[in-house]
Write a structure and sequence with these properties.
3% of the residues lie in helices and 53% in strands. It is mainly β. Strands 1, 2, 3, 4 and 14 form a five-stranded antiparallel beta sheet that branches. Strands 5-13-7-10-11 form a five-stranded antiparallel beta sheet, with no helix packed on it. Strand 10 and strand 11 form a beta hairpin. It is elongated and about 75 Å long.
Length: 171
């Protein structure tokens, strides 16, 4: 166990199995260990885990995107999700506006049945048809403010979903 935990200086994921924390992954390195004994036997290991950043990430969640998005992340800079939508068979234009902060993501001239995936944190657009769609996009990347966000949709899509990971600060 000691070799597996302490042989690498590369950050690893670590979960605390405690109510309220078990769905959060922290990244860091194990820096030291001490055996914990009970009588003459080894009972456990006491260790120090140094976080790379002072937050952990909840497990990713994916759900349909509706007119209300509740951001419970601790991030002071808002939540930058992955948004995926599939155009209706007729194609056309599609807009998602966050009226809470004024960000309005607009796409023009998309193909019917095309699925667009936007990674708003990394600012990457992927088209299911292999098209480069940056020129069809107004380059306003969605961000959800802490708390309740009200969204408006314009255009016809078959579905739209959002994937996100809440940041949770410790200390």
């Amino acid at each position: 166990i000691k070799k597996a935990l302490f042989s690498s200086l590369e950050p690893v994921g670590f979960k605390v199995l405690q109510n309220g924390l078990s769905n959060i992954t922290f990244r860091g390195v194990f820096t030291q260990s001490n055996p914990v004994t009970l009588g003459n036997g080894l009972y456990g290991i006491e260790t120090t885990f140094k976080l790379v950043k002072n937050f952990g990430l909840e497990s990713p969640k994916t759900k349909p995107l509706t007119n209300i998005f509740l951001n419970t992340s601790d991030s002071p800079n808002g939540l930058k999700p992955i948004i995926e939508f599939t155009m209706s068979p007729s194609g056309g234009n599609y807009t998602i506006t966050n009226t809470t902060n004024g960000i309005s993501m607009q796409f023009k001239n998309l193909a019917g049945g095309e699925t667009i995936t936007l990674d708003c944190d990394r600012q990457i657009i992927t088209s299911s048809l292999g098209f480069r769609r940056l020129s069809n996009f107004n380059k306003q990347w969605m961000r959800f403010e802490k708390g309740r966000n009200t969204l408006e949709f314009s255009g016809t899509v078959a579905n739209v979903k959002v994937t996100y990971q809440n940041k949770k600060y410790v200390g």
